Amino acid sequence: MISFRHIPIRIRLSLWYTMLTALVLVIFSFALYIGLKRQLSTTLDQDLRNQAALASTSITYAGGLPILDPSYQNQLTDVVMLWVVQFETQRIVKVRGQTLKIEPLLADDVSRAAVGVSTYRTIRTSDHQRLRIITVPVLDQNGAFGSAVQLGYSMRRVDNALDLLLQTLLVIATLAILVAAFIGYVVAGRALQPVADITRLASQVDGDDLDARLHLDLPNDELGRLASTFDSMLERIDLAFRRQRQFTGDAAHELRTPLSLMRSQIDLAMTQAETPVEYREALGALDGDVSRMTTLVGMLLSLARADAGQLMPNREPVDLADLALDVADQLEPIALENGLTITTDLQPVMATVDADMIIQVLVNLIDNAITNTPSGGTIKVKVVSGQRSVVSSSLPDLGAANGKSKASLASNRQQAIVTVSDTGIGIAPEHLPRIFDRFYRVDTGRARSRGGIGLGLAICQAIVHAHHGTLTARSQPGSGSTFTLTLPLGSPPEGEEAKNREVGDRGARASVPREMT
Fold this sequence. Notes:
- A hairpin with a 5-residue loop joins strand 5 and strand 6 (130-139).
- This protein has helices at residues 9-57, 70-73, 107-113, 156-191, 193-204, 222-272, 276-307, 320-337, 355-371, 406-409, 444-449, 456-466, 496-505, and strands spanning 59-62, 65-68, 79-86, 92-96, 119-124, 130-139, 145-154, 316-319, 341-346, 350-353, 378-387, 414-422, 470-476, 480-488.
- The strands form four sheets. Strands 4-3-7-6-5 form a five-stranded antiparallel β-sheet. Strands 9-11-12-14-13 form a five-stranded mixed β-sheet.
- It has 13 helices and 14 strands.
- The chain folds into three domains: 14-160, Beta-Lactamase; 200-308, Helix Hairpins; 312-505, Histidine kinase-like ATPase, C-terminal domain (Heat Shock Protein 90).
- By secondary structure, the protein is α+β, with helices and mostly antiparallel strands.
């Protein structure tokens, strides 16, 4: 047996529409039938009451016996039964309906008439005829209730009218239900047309045709939002595919350079090297290229694990101020060589984080500041705790590329805020929104001279997102740059700690290499 949920949605909508129409018609027909029946019955009772009153005034008494005026009998057009009953003698004068044998059924009505009470009764005769009978008391010449008039109408007119109405409603309802089923099927098809368009487009779209869009002009209802969401999904997928292609191309380009150098070094060594010293020099040159390629492969592996959600922090309580101070002390000799000064403003802040990963982020940020700050400049590292409930509208939405929006950066939770600011050359506004993109370099020549390949900030952002934090940048050309790292101070989300241990046991936790953009 086919379940209702397995029926096509168009047919289900048509069935619901048809059943609703049928229910409305049944309720309307029932109400109309009952209303007409009551109206006809009330009209019939009113006619009976008027005829009975007229008959009562047409009765005279002779010798104590009731006599009906013969002139009134000529007016009995619709009357099927007219009996006059004398209470004292129990004599029944049958003016109409002499063959009706219903006297025992009316005994109670006669008894009530004797005390002045009028009654109505509906009976069915032996020939299956339905009669509506009224029994009214009649005053005699002494002013007492001496007799009663029993007058009956046939209910054939009422029954015929109701039968005709019932037949008419049955025909009309049947036609209306059929029309409703047809209209419901057509309307459901038109209403579901956007879904059919989405299905058609979804079946046609492949990796080479992700720029297709629906562009349906629909109201802001369920189907309109579905079409808009589908277009937005295609746009996100298209953007992800383009980034993936670009990422693959950039990775191939970056790998090709050291491989080409290695090939050249090997060819040169094989054709020209003759002494152990020359071979040792060739191997030394190869060692630098191998190191560069090993670093690149490690970064690509880290980003791949981040994309797969396997970049799991091994959280433990640490003082971020101590971490920042250690990193600043470690890089201070490099800063001094470049004529720079590193200052710190550190407030003790305990956070549950992966210390190695956060150190890697700080190393990259401070090293970038050293790279992009001329001699005589200053680099400041600051650690504080506070609440970041508002995100400045002047900042670019740097997290959008990784599924984060400005709205998601806002939080009222207590957080640790780490900033690395410099007085360097700054970043031009056209470059600022893209500095977290993979393989993106603001100054290609400077980055390559320092060995950078444009993945450092991308890895930093991946690490920060793995900690459910944010990493943003603010900069003015010629005035320096400020990178702000925000981390929640609370415990990791439920279940993450166990997941981290599981990933660690499998050896899936990445070792993030140091790299400068």
